[in-house]
Structures are given as structure tokens and as C-alpha cells.
Amino acid sequence: MSSNRTAIVTGGSGGIGCEICKRLARDGYRVVVHYGNDRQAAEKVVQEITDSGGIAIVRSADIADEDAVRNMFEFTSAEFGGLDVVVANAGIGGGGPIEQVELADFTKLVAVNLVGAFLTLREAARRLSDGGRLIFVSSQLAERPRTGTGAYSATKAGIDAMLVSMSHELGTRGITVNSVRPGATEPGMFAGSDEERKEFFRNLSPFKRLGHPNDIAAVVSFLASDDAAWVTGQHIRADGGASN
């Protein structure tokens, strides 16, 4: 792949986002590693990429702030010119039984997972080169909510619905629009779960293990590739068969 292609990965400083950044860099992309708060972690990702011969830079932005997101895209254009892939990965976990969810906590989930993803996807639609790739990191829980996940699941399902519409809107430009639905993945949001919960989710998969961020990055790599030019409007399960 040509090294003059550029990708933005939001939430690129840790977990799944970190591995997506490194995988796209290995695929030949110049990568903008977005982070919200942890600059040190983002710089570590960039260092690993550059040490391996890749090209990457860091960029901070409040993902729920319209001006900050727009500035991140303008910064990318100024540094690299065109834009070929956007991976909307930034997100937070949280929730509990709906009757116990505080409005402030739900509002924060919506701000990051729904509004933040919307702002990222909207700016991507405006700036992606023809033939580009737009990829959203969703969740298995968007399709199959469980007890205590309703608030979180709603934010992911909302963007998944938006993506189907966007796939029709952007198809005439050759832009594909897809989401990846990880299952329980460690390290990542699931890392803080207790061992009993981890064991439960391990047993849901025929492989009897949790996912690894590399598993998700491999699917993103495919969706970003030329081989995925005929795949759009899809929600790809990457959960080790746990939702079957």
C-alpha cells in the first residue's frame, strides 16, 4: 500500500485504538493518533510506530466539542493533505440498571459515544477522499444488550443506525461505511472486570477466551483495504462467536 495514504484514529492511545493505529501504520498509512487526556500513552504509540519505520503524529481533541473535532481534521489536512481512512474508536463505558443510572452519567455517555462519534463521522464525510473508508468501532452490546448495559448499548446502536444511512449517502463517492462490533476484549474497557465476569464471557466464545485488541485491529485493517471496496453498510461481529 502507498505510504501517502492517511488515517485518523480517534481514541488511539490505548486498548483497541492503540492496536488499530499500529496495524494501519504497518499497512502503510500515515496515522494521526487522537487522544483525549493521556498524551503520554499517545506519544508511546507514535514512538512504537516510528521505531518500526512508520509515520504517525499525535493530536488532542475533546471528541464532544465541535470546534475541537473540526480543528483535528484541519490539522490532519495541513500535515498530510488528503484523508483516506477515519476510524471512530473513541468511547467510554458505563451504565448499570436503568433505574440506577444518573442523568449526569447518561449525559456523559451520550456526549462521548454518540455526539463525539457523530461529530467525527460528519467531519469525515465532509473531508474523506473519494474511495475512502469510514469505520466505527461499535460493540456486540449494540445488537445484544445485557442486564446493566442499556445506556451504553443505546449510544452504540444509535451510531450503527446512522452508519447505514451514511453508506447510502456516500456510496456514490466510492466511500465505504462500516462498523466493527467487538465482544469482550482485554486489554480495553473490559480489563477492569472481575474474574467471574471474565470467565462468563470467555465461555460464550467457542474459543473460550476473551478477544485481544489485535483481533479487532485485523478486522479494521481489512475494512480499510482495497479488498473491502464491495463491503458497506455492514456491522461486522468480531466477538469470537460469542453472539451466535
UniProtKB/TrEMBL annotation:
PANTHER family: OXIDOREDUCTASE, SHORT-CHAIN DEHYDROGENASE/REDUCTASE FAMILY (AFU_ORTHOLOGUE AFUA_5G02870), SHORT-CHAIN DEHYDROGENASE_REDUCTASE FAMILY PROTEIN. It holds the Pfam family adh_short_C2. Keywords: Oxidoreductase. GO terms for molecular function: oxidoreductase activity. Belongs to the short-chain dehydrogenases/reductases (SDR) family. It comes from the Bacteria. This is 3-oxoacyl-ACP reductase. Residues 5-187 form the Ketoreductase domain.
